[in-house]
Amino acid sequence: MDKTPGKVHTVSLDSEVCGETFEIQYYLPKSYSDLYKYNVIITFDSQDFFKYGQIERLIEKMERDGELDRTIIVGIPYPSVDWRNHYFSPNGEQHEKFVTFVGRELNAFIDSNFKTLKMANSRLLMGESLAGSFALSVALTYPNTFSQALAFSPFVDDAFMERFKNSMSLINLNIYHTIGLEEDNFKTIMGKQADFLTPNRELNELLEDEPLEYTYRELEGGHIWKTWKPELKNVLMHFFG
């Protein structure tokens, strides 16, 4: 397995749970050494976190400036828009199996191939839109494995909201949740008009009264990386600064 630091690598991972092979991306900082143990950021929609969020450049700069603990990035890219709907969407037919894949198989792959801290609070799940909903799903299902999650503008409906109500997992979680103020009427990647602002505000009202560590931010802007990218540094400082 290629561990050349400072590069985005791609590897295939077979899943027994899903009966499929998935593409995984990973990035080791230029200072990576097997002598140290690392926090892990797991990104869903990983190609967008690299291309539009430029997250690898950010962790390099923050580490150089002494603002970030040692951290590696592992991610799952999406091969198509349809695929996101089947696997990342809370209503997708492959969603539950894929949550299990991340909680069991992907996590085992990461810990067996990299020097990691292997604690729930040393792992951070990240996603935007449907991938943000997926990050929250994984944290709710495996709170003792992944206690930290970032969701930029997640898809929220009544059924997804029900998952949070009376959840015994919440007490273990640290969630960072954002929504854009221009997301009350926009066109999704599927070409449909949507209002994400209203249901995300409802989710915020629900979570504010629950026993978890919770940060909620309403950002200037819409359902795009121009809104999310400037918030990434605040997120990394919050969890691993």
UniProtKB/TrEMBL annotation:
Q: Identify the domain of life.
A: Bacteria
InterPro entries the record matches: AB_hydrolase_fold (IPR029058), Esterase-like (IPR000801), Mycobacterial_A85_antigen (IPR050583)
Q: What is this protein called?
A: Putative esterase
